[in-house]
Design a protein that fits this description.
Layout lengths: L1 H45 L13 E7 L3 E3 L2 E9 L3 E5 L4 E5 L7 E2 L4 E5 L2 H57 L5 H26 L1 H27 L2 E3 L4 E6 L6 E2 L4 E6 L5 E6 L1 H12 L5 E6 L2 E10 L10 E9 L9 E7 L3 E7 L9 E5 L4 E5 L1 E7 L5 E6 L8 E3 L12 E7 L2
Parallel strand pairs: 1-23
Antiparallel strand pairs: 1-22, 2-17, 3-12, 3-16, 4-11, 5-7, 5-10, 6-9, 7-8, 9-11, 12-15, 13-14, 13-16, 14-15, 17-21, 18-19, 20-21
Pfam families: BSH_CzcB
GO molecular function: efflux transmembrane transporter activity
Keywords: Coiled coil, Membrane, Transmembrane, Transmembrane helix
């Protein structure tokens, strides 16, 4: 029995110890947090007071240029293709075989140079045959003229013979009335008279129709001579010559080819009548028309295949394609370009009349399409400008030509592209250069 009481006493002690441990674990986290908060409040209360530092506004680093408005001629950059209004596609005038082609594509030729030779044999035979026909008709005409002269002479004789036959018939008739001639004599004289009258009528008809016969022969002779002349002309066309000094752009035949009238042989263009057809923007047509009205005109330059070209605007095209703004300008090549092929792409630069109070700026200075920024007490100030075209910078680079009343002499313009540029943005000028 005593042993059972001892065991029960130990069990009660163990239960009390477990309960105490659980209570300690539950109270420990709040006590730690409370101690930390108390320590933070103590340190904050005893810490020295400091003044807040002001936040400085950032400044973007930019470059700028100083401008000075002056009259500047805009440079109009255009592009087009080389062509010639004097371009001839030479075709065959007759049906014949190609005998020789002494030229090659791309070669320069002088006016009158032989380009293609066609076989002449068939045409020579036709010409000989037609010439013989003409000679035959001429002989017939000469013979007819002599016959007409003979008929006219014989007509008088025929009339005299009719008169004689009439007198003879009258004489025999009087004799017969006195029974001194028979009726058969009268009939014989009457038949002689009728024969003479028929002969006279035939001769008279021959004389009267002489002019008609001559006209018929003349018409036949004219037709024959026309055919002969056509054969002679066609014979001359078997030799195809250059119509002017120029360059061959196309050769379509070779020796041995059979060609028919109208088939293409060669194409030649005049190297002294070269033009560049360039598209003019709609906004530049007005200024260009005004320049055309001036005596000096509009000049342009270009560099193609290391060749320098000097051009002048000759005229504007008389047609504008639908859906295409602007119109084509035809620039006459004044100097250079003789060796350039037709269809060559040409980038040219035209010089327009000077624009007053203009400023040349790098393209980097432009924001949007019509806005730049000037410097004002380390702040960017937006300026709306009028774009006038392009002009070279001092270092030879391409620049844009603008104008604005706010861009006066000494104004500094930002030439650095920065993101989110806006009016009033603070900047720091790193350096400057003359535009």
């Amino acid at each position: 029995m005593p042993s059972d009481r001892g065991v029960g006493h130990r069990d009660h002690k163990d239960d009390d110890r477990v309960s105490g441990n659980r209570l300690l674990k539950a109270l420990l986290p709040p006590l730690v947090i409370a101690a930390g908060v108390a320590l933070f409040l103590l340190l904050r209360a005893t810490a020295p007071e400091t003044e807040p530092q002001p936040v400085e506004e950032p400044a973007w680093a930019v470059q700028s240029v100083e401008v000075s408005p002056t009259p500047v001629p805009p440079r109009l950059r255009l592009s087009g293709y080389l062509e010639s209004p004097r371009t001839s596609m030479l075709t065959a005038a007759v049906e014949a075989d190609v005998a020789s082609v002494p030229v090659r594509e791309g070669r320069r030729v002088e006016a009158g140079d032989v380009l293609v030779e066609l076989d002449r044999a068939d045409l020579e035979l036709q010409l000989r045959e037609q010439t013989a026909e003409v000679n035959d008709l001429r002989s017939q005409r000469a013979l007819e003229e002599r016959q007409i002269e003979a008929d006219r002479r014989e007509l008088a004789n025929e009339r005299e013979l009719v008169a004689i036959a009439e007198r003879e018939l009258n004489r025999v008739q009087r004799l017969a009335d006195r029974d001194m001639a028979s009726g058969s004599d009268v009939d014989a004289r009457r038949r002689e008279l009728e024969q003479q009258q028929m002969s006279l009528s035939g001769r008279q008809l021959a004389v009267d129709s002489a002019e008609n016969r001559l006209e018929q022969l003349a018409a036949r002779l004219d037709r024959a001579e026309a055919v002969r002349d056509r054969f002679a002309r066609d014979l001359g066309r078997t030799t195809v010559r250059a119509p002017f000094t120029g360059r061959l752009s196309e050769v379509h035949v070779s020796p041995g080819d059979r060609v028919r009238p109208g088939e293409q042989l060669v194409q030649v263009y005049d190297t002294r009548a070269l033009e560049v057809r360039a598209h003019l923007p709609a906004g530049k047509i007005g200024p260009v028309r005004r320049v055309l009205a001036l005596e000096d005109g509009l000049s342009a330059t270009a560099m193609v295949d290391a060749q320098s070209l000097r051009l002048e605007l000759d005229r504007l095209s008389g047609r504008s394609e639908r859906g295409e703004g602007g119109v084509a300008g035809l620039f006459r090549v004044v100097e250079g370009g003789e060796d350039l092929p037709l269809g060559r792409f040409v980038a040219l630069e035209a010089l327009l009349p000077a624009e007053p109070d203009a400023v040349v700026l790098p393209f980097e200075a432009l924001y949007g399409t019509r806005r730049v920024y000037r410097l004002d007490d380390e702040r960017m100030r937006a300026v709306e400008v009028e774009r006038l075209g392009e002009a070279p910078l001092a270092d030879g680079r391409r620049g844009m030509l603008v104008r604005s009343r706010e861009l006066t002499a000494g104004t500094r313009v930002v030439v650095t592209q920065i993101p989110r540029a806006m009016d009033g943005l603070r900047v720091r000028d790193l350096g400057s250069e003359q535009p």
